[in-house]
Write a structure and sequence with these properties.
The structure holds two protein chains of two kinds.
Chain A lengths: L1 H13 L5 E7 L5 E6 L25 H4 L4 E5 L1 H12 L8 E6 L5 E2 L4 H10 L6 H11 L3 H12 L7 H5 L24 H14 L9 H5 L7 H15 L21
Parallel strand pairs in A: 1-3, 3-4
Antiparallel strand pairs in A: 1-2, 4-5
Helix pairs in contact in A: 3-4, 5-10
Chain B lengths: L2 E6 L3 H10 L3 E8 L2 E6 L25 E9 L4 E4 L8 E6 L1 H16 L4 H8 L1 E6 L25 E7 L2 E6 L2 H9 L4 E3 L18 H7 L8 H6 L7 H5 L6 E8 L2 E8 L20 H20 L9 H5 L6 H10 L2
Parallel strand pairs in B: 2-6, 6-7, 7-8
Antiparallel strand pairs in B: 1-9, 1-10, 2-3, 4-5, 4-12, 8-9, 11-12
Classes of the chains: A alpha/beta, B alpha+beta.
């Protein structure tokens, strides 16, 4: 698998199709990290194994990465989903990026363009795993008071470093709501109310957009299980809109049968 | 001459109880899931065992993540100030690592040197640091490269070093340290000829700090900042876990005519950190913010405050979601031709 990715990266770089390949390489100790390969002869540094889970899609919108030229990205399913969502939100165009897709079965997927990517994502709708669903159910089974206590305890650890936001490809707002202060929508200080408001606001803004990559939870330096908030919403959307529904809660339809929104 | 005593590990719970009976809040590292955080404890049994470094530093005892500065009430054309927050009760922070204790000098240089910050001073005066030497280190630690050591006494009021399974060597370093001993003199015994050095972690020196400080002023326009920070995502984790980062933001929160003013941690990693009202941002992109982080700690602070803004605790590298390893980046800068 890793060899195939390296081969593909070499081809893309030496043929001039892309100027940079965003993938995973050796990090500190046994960590892997994002690397940015610009020469075919460096492609051998690319790694693909079970540690390569960081959602790299956010780098496609980063100034310094864009300045390197057209990019190819090593993309597992959550990255593919992110790209599909970002295209839907018109964050980049088909010509901006090439994809080295990897299926959940760990096979290289041939995605010649981003339309093919969209079709591939559509054919593989987002579903919680049984383990993830069990965790959502465990929280659901709590009383309201228990659930409140659970989240107050978890969010009390928050230091407002915004690693959840920075690590999330869907958090690309040029000016995040928390930074809008005329008027102030949500409380900025990292006290109990500020922390709670922040995480609820963020979860709601990701409703129907979150691809369940888990990056927010991995990035959190104090170990808040943030993905549980998003997974609960994913489960709600599946229950209320069906798994096939595109971008539920993230799109407006002029012919919506509810009239409160008009 | 430092006063050296010993104290049994099994006496620490008694010591905690005596300090609490004396009106002190005791903060100590507590394990919470995969993190180890300083929290108020009611006995020694709550203290985490066997960790290299706490997830967040003890800085929060002196510089909270968000701190009430004052309360106010507005009327038509006047603002009146209300009584501020109550004076903090005295705190003992137990289990601080020597690197963190050294970081207090950096925070002091910012908050007490040119300007005497009253809120900070109050806490600083009423806080006692009982540090514990490092018997273990990991690949992220580099205290010895920035002037520290796993047994450094700088910044501590008492430094404990475990010299056998149940005995700590206690170096009583300041008047605040003596005050702790005087609360429970019976728990301490006179020390013999014990030396702490052979009980300390081996943390090799990894780079020449002087060479780094010489190199940085000429490196401002280099491409290295872009190369190093390509993977940086611009969160504030490195600053917030850092014991020596001191930048803050002021936030007012109002409810009708009443309001509160808070001082909150801020980070040079954020795009908004230097955003001017005009819309101009002198640090428009992440590579410029990364440069600022390194320059501030290893060039500007040594120049202006005569302290190095980094104590080599390694937290930023451990916590970074994208594996920005500060030690590796510094070594690359020092070794670059």
């Amino acid at each position: 698998m890793q060899d195939k990715i390296i081969q593909k990266a070499k081809e893309l770089l030496s043929g001039g199709a892309v100027q940079v390949v965003i993938g995973y390489g050796q990090g500190t100790g046994d960590r892997v990290r994002a690397i940015f390969i610009q020469k075919p002869e460096d492609a051998g540094r690319l790694i693909m194994d079970g540690r390569c889970v960081q959602n790299l899609a956010g780098y496609l919108m980063k100034h310094e990465v864009r300045a390197l030229g057209r990019a190819a990205i090593v993309a597992r399913m959550p990255v593919l989903r992110s790209i599909a969502q970002l295209m839907y939100e018109e964050q980049f165009k088909d010509s901006d990026v090439a994809v080295i897709g990897i299926s959940d079965a760990n096979e290289l997927v041939d995605l010649p363009d981003l339309n093919a990517l969209k079709e591939y994502v559509r054919a593989n709708p987002l579903k919680l795993t049984p383990e993830e669903q069990a965790e959502v159910d465990r929280l659901d089974a709590m009383t309201r008071e228990e659930r409140w206590a659970f989240w107050m305890e978890e969010t009390s650890k928050c230091i407002k470093c915004y690693a959840c936001r920075a690590s999330c490809p869907m958090c690309y707002c040029a000016r995040c709501t928390v930074e809008v202060n005329q008027p102030q929508w949500i409380s900025v200080p990292s006290h109990d109310l500020g922390n709670l408001e922040w995480h609820i606001m963020r979860a709601m803004h990701l409703a129907g957009r979150c691809v369940n990559c888990g990056e927010c939870t991995r990035a959190c330096p104090v170990g808040i299980p943030l993905r549980l908030l998003n997974q609960r919403i994913i489960a709600d959307i599946a229950d209320n809109f069906g798994e096939e529904e595109d971008y539920a809660l993230a799109a407006f339809k002029p012919d919506d049968k509810e009239d409160f929104i008009r | 001459m430092t006063d050296k005593k010993t104290i049994k590990k099994s006496s620490l719970d008694d010591l905690f109880k005596k300090m609490m009976a004396d009106g002190k809040r005791v903060l100590a590292p507590v394990r919470k899931g995969e993190t180890v955080l300083f929290q108020e404890v009611d006995g020694y049994s709550a203290v985490a065992a066997d960790y290299v470094q706490t997830t967040l530093s003890a800085k929060e005892a002196l510089l909270p993540r968000c701190e009430e500065m004052m309360r106010f009430t507005t009327a038509q054309s006047t603002v009146s100030l209300e009584e501020g927050p109550a004076k903090p009760s005295p705190v003992v922070v137990f289990g601080v690592r020597p690197c963190d204790a050294r970081s207090i000098a950096v925070v002091n240089a910012v908050y007490l040197k040119d300007y005497n910050d009253a809120l900070y001073k109050e806490k600083s005066d009423s806080t006692t640091i009982i540090a514990v030497s490092c018997a273990k280190s990991d690949e992220y630690c580099f205290c010895t490269s920035v002037g520290g050591s796993p047994g450094s006494t700088e910044g501590s009021d008492i430094l404990l070093t475990l010299i056998d399974g149940d005995t700590y060597l206690a170096e009583i370093l300041t008047d605040k340290g003596k005050a702790v001993v005087s609360i429970a003199p019976a728990l301490f015994a006179a020390a013999g000829s014990e030396v702490k050095e052979k009980h300390l972690a081996d943390v090799p020196v990894q780079f020449d700090l002087g060479a780094l400080e010489k190199k940085l002023p000429g490196a401002f326009d280099g491409a290295v900042w872009i190369t190093q920070s390509l993977r940086c995502i611009g969160c504030g984790t490195c600053s917030y876990v850092c014991p020596a980062c001191t930048c803050f933001d002021i936030q007012d929160e109002t409810d009708g005519t009443r309001g509160m003013r808070f001082r909150c941690w801020d980070s040079c990693g954020f795009g908004q950190f230097t955003l001017h009202t005009s819309g101009h941002n002198p640090r428009e992109v992440q590579s410029q913010r990364w440069r600022q982080r390194i320059m501030h700690k290893f060039s500007y602070q040594p120049d202006q405050l005569q302290v190095v803004g980094c104590v080599g605790c390694g937290r930023c590298s451990r916590a970074c979601p994208v594996d920005m390893n500060i030690l590796q980046h510094i070594k690359d800068i020092v070794e670059a031709r």
